[in-house]
């Protein structure tokens, strides 16, 4: 399916941001050897809109086929759970949420976040498109609907008498192919004095730190603050605050309200970030041209590191089987001849092969058996948590390596 117009403003898309070649869907893990024969690859090419500056991918696979049975469970990251718990504590206090409030989370995954509202006796509803993931949330006692969110779902919930005092979407906005339908749905579901908070990777950080692995088919869009502000404004929503977060290599948490009903004043952080992005060139199409060359440098440096390690007889394994790692490995053409295997705490991934690279995914305990020289941390945004978990590997002199923006040893 060729993308010729911007998915938000319908302007013609003519400027390529980066072309990462052919790649399988990042979460399409292979369960057996036969699956290799049927593996499908799609172009992984991002464009930037010259009107609204939204960076976006072509849509090659329907969301139903990507998210219907999903392998990502948020609760397997301890640091992400702590991030969620801290957020819940803060917003309950800031917006005076209680037993008479209603909190709705879109793409609520396995209940990793809503469980903390439940503990605080705040009524919740999760909306999650993946049946297998939603089942885990329900088992925790978290009410969860299995559906894709948009205008239709919002109207159904309104007919049932639901309006959200707090509407949450963490790392979902990038996954939405029909942005206008999605944001309009949020506007419809939001109570008159309600607040929306959303988190997503920040394009400025992606660009500055050459985070090429953040780009994969499940992420249809990549947002600067100036782009997301335009999208929300088109649906009667004002961004009144923004926070810059360290999560996922650098994210934004935006706060939105109805433009004509909300009462929260506009924070100085909104004005500051908007100005910084404009000054840095994110409202200038030519600014985006430099990214592809930097990506090629990142690829060459990683390949050189792995090839040098192989020549020296060093054993290299991976830690993690994240979607971002699959983008990186396939863009670089890395297979099991350079990375022997990778490990992951998620039992739903263990015993499978990474898509494209066909690197085996094993249980973390395997590292203690084979005692590799280097452990390449593919979810490098969680490097502190992972290094702590694998501290035992230092006993034989193993070193931890992160690949982005270039390979480097981490303590």
From TrEMBL:
GO terms for biological process: methylation. This is Methyltransferase domain-containing protein. Signal peptide: none annotated. Keywords: Methyltransferase, Transferase. Residues 6-67 form the Methyltransferase putative zinc binding domain. Residues 246-405 form the C-methyltransferase domain. It comes from Bradyrhizobium niftali. PANTHER family: BLL5978 PROTEIN (PTHR43861:SF5), TRANS-ACONITATE 2-METHYLTRANSFERASE-RELATED (PTHR43861).
